[in-house]
TrEMBL record:
Signal peptide: none annotated. The keyword Transcription regulation applies. Gene3D superfamilies: 1.10.8.60, 3.40.50.2300, Homeodomain-like (1.10.10.60), P-loop containing nucleotide triphosphate hydrolases (3.40.50.300). PROSITE patterns: RESPONSE_REGULATORY, SIGMA54_INTERACT_4. This is Response regulator. CDD domains: AAA, REC_DctD-like. Keywords: ATP-binding, Nucleotide-binding, Phosphoprotein, Transcription, Transcription regulation, Two-component regulatory system. Residues 148-370 form the Sigma-54 factor interaction domain. Residues 10-124 form the Response regulatory domain. The modification 4-aspartylphosphate is found at residue 59.
Length: 440
């Protein structure tokens, strides 16, 4: 697999003066930077998240949210996100105070292009180092024994195959019914591979079926009044791209994905040339519709290496162990002690067929932790010891935490998974004091 060139410096530019915004955009673009420009801070806040790998350049004097308030809001998103403030002479004291609070730099208008480029390059280097240290801390804190749980023959086979595939660089197709653990398996392959410190980007059915799927996936180069946008595929450069439920893609989109699989190139909308990528591709497909494989060219391109995920009903001896893990995790996320599992719950765990597989078992474990599993004794919290709004709030918070964990704190993926407007997502995160960075 050929090595890819270093990705361009990414800059989020916030400037309300259209002439200065266009001039700054051109200056940075000519230096090879990937720039996304905004006319106000609110639009930038809606777009930025803690995964942004670049630098923010923002004016101080702006209508609505000014640069200082914008900087304070970004500190809540990610305290390591570098912000360069551009100021008039009368704002220098404010900018100096912001630097004491963590701003990366400030430039006094009118500033030389060389000074802007120098500040952006320095801040970009610090950002890359901060993200690398974050990945290393996450890796160090991750359970080194992380693997497929269970002692059944099916679990042992699956564990062995995943560990073997992870040591290679080959692309993989994961098959199985809904809820059998394909997403977890994809993440596990990445975490056990040499790419573990690089990006893991999930593209799910919500993105593949979206009306702007090509823009979201392939991005867009600037031109004809359009701002540039880095696509999800290019964000995976150097790491792993996970296409979850590729059957949701349209025929045109599938053709472009086939080209990606074969050539390892991405061609953003409006781009004059393709850009080479260094990525590993993992595809997940539902097993219950084998006839779809005849219409899926990407399936055939990667079909040489397939991993089948068994039904939970086919590994019954593993269910109690997996249930205990789910209960412990949901209790930790809810900030409550793990409950004592009653006899009625254990009977249900061991006798139920779990047609929803791991998803259903996880949901049941969450209900047990929250006291919502009604087969328990009359001492259940549903007997009136807690008001309904508190139970609903606990459940909503747990759903958000579970989704944040699955998305690794990625707001765009969280929005697609929950099919909820971005503003509502941020309102809910603020309501429950959930920081996406904690889940990365």
């Amino acid at each position: 697999m050929s090595a890819a060139a270093a990705p361009p410096i990414q800059v989020a530019l916030v400037e309300d003066d259209p002439d200065l915004r266009d001039a700054t955009f051109q200056t940075l673009t000519l230096e090879g930077a990937d720039v996304v420009a905004f006319a106000d801070a609110r639009a930038a806040l809606d777009w930025l998240d803690a995964d942004f790998p670049g630098v923010v350049v923002s004016d101080v004097r702006m209508p609505g949210i000014d640069g200082i308030a914008f900087f304070a809001a970004l500190r809540e998103v990610d305290s390591d996100l570098p912000v360069i403030l551009t100021t008039g002479h009368g704002d220098i004291a404010m900018a100096v105070a912001a630097m004491k609070n963590g701003a990366a730099d400030f430039l006094t208008k009118p500033y030389a292009s060389a000074d802007l480029i120098r500040a952006v390059r320095a801040a970009s280097e610090r950002r890359a180092l901060a993200l690398e240290n974050r990945r290393l801390r996450q890796e160090a804190g991750r359970n080194v024994g992380l693997s497929i749980p269970g002692s059944s023959a099916a679990a042992q086979r699956l564990r062995s195959v995943i560990e073997g595939v992870a040591r290679s660089e080959i692309d993989v197709v994961l098959t199985g019914q809904a809820g059998t653990g394909k997403s977890y398996g994809a993440r596990l392959i990445h975490d056990l591979s040499a790419r573990r410190s690089r990006p893991f980007v999930t593209v799910d059915a919500g993105v593949l079926a979206h009306e702007d799927a090509e823009l979201l996936l392939f991005g867009r180069d600037p031109g004809a009044g359009q701002l540039s946008r880095t696509g999800l595929i290019e964000r995976a450069n150097g790491g792993t791209l996970f296409l979850d439920d590729i059957a949701a893609a349209s025929g045109v989109l599938t053709t472009r994905l086939v080209s990606l699989v074969e050539k390892r190139e991405v061609w953003p909308l409006g781009a004059a040339t393709a850009r080479r990528l260094n990525i590993r591709i993992i595809i997940a497909r539902l097993a219950e519709q084998p006839q779809d494989s005849l219409r899926d060219p990407a399936w055939h391109r990667l079909g040489a290496v397939q991993i089948a995920f068994p039904l939970l009903a086919d590994r019954r001896e593993d269910v109690p162990e997996i249930f205990r893990l789910f209960v412990a995790r949901h209790a930790r996320d809810a900030g409550v002690p793990a409950p004592t599992i009653g006899e009625a719950h254990w009977r249900h765990v061991q006798s139920h067929d779990w047609p929803g597989n791991l998803h259903e078992l996880s949901g049941y474990a969450r209900a047990v932790v929250l006291g919502l599993a009604e087969i328990e004794s009359p001492a259940s919290p549903l007997t009136g010891q807690r008001p309904l709004h508190a139970i609903v709030a606990d459940f909503e918070r747990t759903v958000l935490e579970d989704a944040l964990r699955q998305c690794r704190g990625d707001i765009a993926q969280l929005q697609a998974m929950l099919q909820t407007p971005r503003k509502t997502i941020y309102d809910k995160l603020a309501k429950y004091d959930l920081k996406p960075a904690r889940f990365r």
